[in-house]
Amino acid sequence: MNGDARVHVSLKNIARSDRGVVTGPIWLATREPSHAFPEVEWSDFPVVALGSWIPALRRLSARGEAADCHFMDGPYRFTVSAAGNDWRVACFETRDTRSATNAVAEWVTTPGNFLESAISAGTTVLGYCDSRSWWSDDTERLRTALAFRDPERAS
């Protein structure tokens, strides 16, 4: 299904635990609100997730290596692979064997838009953390992922 999927974050309900872990809403969605994964405003660990997704997406962009991206909470994950001039995003509700037959959602999207949405989400969350002095190894990993254009250096 075409849908111009993007990574979304929200700063409402974002919080930091006593151990310094940042939680908040992060999800994938198309322009249609009913097409979201895992769901609109899914509560997870956006700093950690984006710190691993962005380097994987940059490797896909640079070298065509498929990106395997996991949400930290629950069994949710998605893969992003090249499909001609587009990217194919396949979403799964299991960490087990994945195949096109067990994808719960599938979208074809524009590579630049999807990657830029992840970078924008990372910049937004990191800016929020920086404004509150919420610094940790996780925020530094995200900062590094955002700073480097070389996908190997940001992994």
Topology diagram in text:
Layout: E1 6-9, E2 15-16, E3 22-29, E4 36-37, E5 43-44, H1 46-63, E6 67-70, E7 77-83, E8 86-92, E9 105-109, H2 111-131, H3 137-147
Antiparallel strand pairs: 1-3, 2-3, 3-4, 3-5, 6-7, 7-8, 8-9
Helix pairs in contact: 1-2, 1-3, 2-3
The largest pleated sheet is described as: 5 strands, antiparallel
Helix/sheet category: alpha+beta
> Considering DSSP H and I runs of 4 or more, what fraction of the residues is helical?
25-40%
Q: How would the global form be characterised?
A: globular
Using the CA coordinates, give the radius of gyration: 15 Å
Broad CATH class: Alpha Beta
* Known CATH architecture: 2-Layer Sandwich
| Count of individual helical segments | 3
- Given as residue ranges, the uncertain stretches (5+ residues, pLDDT < 50) are none
CATH fold label: Secreted effector protein pipB2 fold
Give the SSE string: EEEEEHEEEEHH
β content, as a range? 25-35%
Number of domains: 1
What is the mean predicted local confidence, pLDDT? Answer: 90
Oligomer category:
single chain
Characterise the protein shown here:
The protein has helices at 46-63, 111-131, 137-147; strands spanning 6-9, 15-16, 22-29, 36-37, 43-44, 67-70, 77-83, 86-92, 105-109. With 155 residues, the chain is an alpha+beta fold. It has three helices and nine strands; from the N terminus they run βββββαββββαα. It has one domain (6-132): Secreted effector protein pipB2 fold (2-Layer Sandwich).
